[in-house]
């Protein structure tokens, strides 16, 4: 009874099993309501979606499509983080700062308007998808990385000076090594953007397949059970990678587990 | 109590600093090497002033971190202009690299230090200091796992390991309970007596504790109708018979002096 009171009380911290139980109960209730009241509607019910999920993942082409989407996302993410890191670190050198500022502003450029330009610049569909993905992610990466760099306490730079480090050594210690954990966190957060964009760019060249291609084809035939099933798969994979990257970060950078002193 | 004041170790001459208004005006003082026969006696100096008077700016000027508008800070026996890196600083919030363990933080201090010893000896030295200052069992921990006192000790040792003879401490007694203040005082005395030329400069608004540990104190305050803070008084606590006495805070004359200084700042 006490727990029930707690979950309705503002500013109460819910931890561990209670938190998991709360999520499970609310998710089960939502699915149950959807199942009961959604049976006569246009949107397929959870049971139909789950049946479609099993049907999709047991088809022969699923692994190929999944692999195609994952490899494109990973390649795009890898190249994007490299470009973003180079641009962000170079931003500390005054000569290159305007370049970083411009890249940050590129967040407001719409990809759709640039498809023709990228088609001219690239040689095949794969390159087109990859370049659009990178162009879409890099400005967001750079924005997050620059905000990390800007939030560094100036006392850390002063500490480096007292330890007789020159500016390059200071940059290596404070900005690069000292913020690697946060770079990883940015990567985790931006993976969501890449994963979300994958379905869009895969629609531009469908010859390689991919989850995005499956989604677009099913949308075309208004096969909503399949559309929702693919969305569930994309959602579940996104959650899985988020969890995976979070744990890799904790493993690589154990100090991030320590609660920050207030 | 036999002692002599020998060479000038730090000289601050006509330092002025202003941004949109004057912060520091004509700051002048000197720190001499105090020699006591048969002892390795370093120097402990206090720069006392109320909050917001410009202590932190003077602190940064002394460390070579910022340039004054005019004037100079010279250090060492050869009295060369101070360069960032020659003066250690222990910030009020005891800044350490949170991504490195205490051992790695201390090791990093020795990477560019003036102490030229091999890696094994460096590790030995770290262990020696850690044992001396109750940090031996915390060497593998990250700074965020340490208490405030432990962080402060690690921060001070880090600066000592750079080989710097001059260490500035910003408000070292701030936020500590009475017991911890006594321990910090013991630690600072230990550090100052590690080497004859070791010079600790405490920048603080805590009059009582700063005076209790110092051999010389400079009062940083504003003079009537004049802009910016300057050194308004120099207290030679050795001459006054108030230095190097662990029980000085119980002395009536000392308490009277503390009350006077508090009134002046």
What does this protein look like?
- The complex is a heterodimer of chains A (262) and B (265).
- Chain A has 262 residues and is mainly α.
- Chain A is built from twelve helices and no strands.
- Chain A folds into two domains: 1-37; 45-257, MetI-like (MetI-like fold), CATH 1.10.3720.
- In chain A, helix 4 (60-90) crosses helix 7, helix 4 (60-90) crosses helix 10 (180-202) and helix 10 packs antiparallel against helix 12 (224-252).
- Chain B has 265 residues and is an alpha/beta fold.
- Chain B folds into two domains: 4-86 and 164-264, P-loop containing nucleotide triphosphate hydrolases (Rossmann fold, 3-Layer(aba) Sandwich); 94-162, no CATH class.
- The longest helix of chain B has 15 residues, at 178-192.
- Chain A binds chain B through residues 153, 155-156, 158-159, 161-165, 169, 173-174, 177-178, 180-181, 253-255, 258-261, and chain B through 60, 63-65, 84-85, 87-89, 91, 93, 95-99, 108-109, 111-113, 142, 144-145, 158-159, 162, 164.
The strand line-up of the biggest sheet of chain B is 6-7-8-3-9-10
Q: Which CATH top level class of the largest domain in chain B fits?
A: Alpha Beta
Give me the count of strands of chain B: 10
Distance between the termini of chain A: 33 Å
Question: Span from first to last CA of chain B?
Answer: 30 Å
Cα-based radius of gyration of chain B, to the nearest Å: 18 Å
The tally of structural domains of chain B comes to: 2
How many structurally independent domains of chain A?
A: 2
| Residue runs with pLDDT of under 50 for 5 or more positions of chain A | none
Shape-level CATH architecture of the largest domain in chain B: 3-Layer(aba) Sandwich
Key descriptive features of the protein:
heterodimer, A: 262 residues, mainly alpha, MetI-like fold, 2 domains, 12 helices, 74% helix, flat, B: 265 residues, alpha/beta, Rossmann fold, six-stranded mixed sheet, four-stranded antiparallel sheet, 10 strands, 28% strand, globular
């Amino acid at each position: 009874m006490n727990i029930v009171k707690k979950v309705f009380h503002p500013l109460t911290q819910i931890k561990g099993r209670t938190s998991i139980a709360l999520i499970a109960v609310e998710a089960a209730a939502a699915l149950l309501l959807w199942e009961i009241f959604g049976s006569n509607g246009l949107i397929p019910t959870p049971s139909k979606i789950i049946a479609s999920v099993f049907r999709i993942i047991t088809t022969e082409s699923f692994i190929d499509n999944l692999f195609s989407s994952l490899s494109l996302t990973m390649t795009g993410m890898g190249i994007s983080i490299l470009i973003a890191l180079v641009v962000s670190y170079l931003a500390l050198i005054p000569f290159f700062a305007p370049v970083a500022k411009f890249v940050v502003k590129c967040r407001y450029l719409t990809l759709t308007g640039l498809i023709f330009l990228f088609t001219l610049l690239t040689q095949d569909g794969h390159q087109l998808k990859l370049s659009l993905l990178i162009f879409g992610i890099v400005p967001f990466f750079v924005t997050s990385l620059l905000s990390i760099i800007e939030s560094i306490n100036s006392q850390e730079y002063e500490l480096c000076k007292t330890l007789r480090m020159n500016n390059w050594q200071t940059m290596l210690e404070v900005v690069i090594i000292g913020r690697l954990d946060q770079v990883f966190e940015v990567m985790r957060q931006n993976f969501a953007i890449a994963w979300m964009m994958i379905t869009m760019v895969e629609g531009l060249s469908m010859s390689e397949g991919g989850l995005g291609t499956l989604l677009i084809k099913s949308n075309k035939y208004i096969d909503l059970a399949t559309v929702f099933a693919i969305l569930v798969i994309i959602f579940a994979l996104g959650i899985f990678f988020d969890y995976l990257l979070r744990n890799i970060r904790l493993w690589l950078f154990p100090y991030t587990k320590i609660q920050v002193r207030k | 109590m036999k002692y002599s004041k020998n060479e000038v170790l730090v000289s601050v001459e006509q330092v002025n600093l202003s941004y949109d208004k004057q912060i520091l005006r004509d700051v002048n003082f000197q720190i001499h090497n105090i020699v006591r026969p048969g002892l390795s006696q370093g120097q402990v100096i206090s720069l006392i002033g109320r909050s917001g008077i410009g202590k932190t700016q003077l602190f940064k000027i002394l460390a070579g971190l910022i340039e004054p508008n005019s004037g100079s800070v010279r250090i060492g026996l050869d009295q060369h202009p101070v360069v960032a890196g020659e003066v250690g600083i222990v910030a009020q919030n005891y800044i350490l690299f949170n991504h490195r363990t205490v051992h790695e933080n201390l090791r990093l201090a020795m990477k560019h230090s003036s102490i030229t010893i091999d890696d094994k000896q460096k590790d030995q030295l770290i262990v020696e200091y850690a044992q001396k200052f109750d940090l031996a069992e915390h060497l593998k921990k990250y700074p965020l796992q340490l208490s405030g006192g432990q962080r402060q000790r690690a921060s001070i040792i880090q600066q000592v390991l750079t080989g710097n003879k001059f260490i500035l401490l910003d408000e070292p007694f701030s936020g500590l309970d009475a017991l911890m203040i006594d321990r910090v005082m013991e630690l600072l005395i230990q550090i100052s007596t590690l080497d004859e030329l070791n010079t600790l400069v405490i920048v603080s608004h805590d009059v009582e504790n700063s005076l209790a540990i110092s051999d010389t104190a400079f009062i940083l305050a504003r003079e009537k109708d004049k802009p910016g803070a300057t050194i308004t008084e120099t207290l030679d606590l050795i001459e006054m018979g108030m230095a190097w006495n662990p029980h000085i805070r119980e002395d009536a004359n000392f308490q009277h002096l503390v009350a006077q200084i508090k009134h002046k700042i």
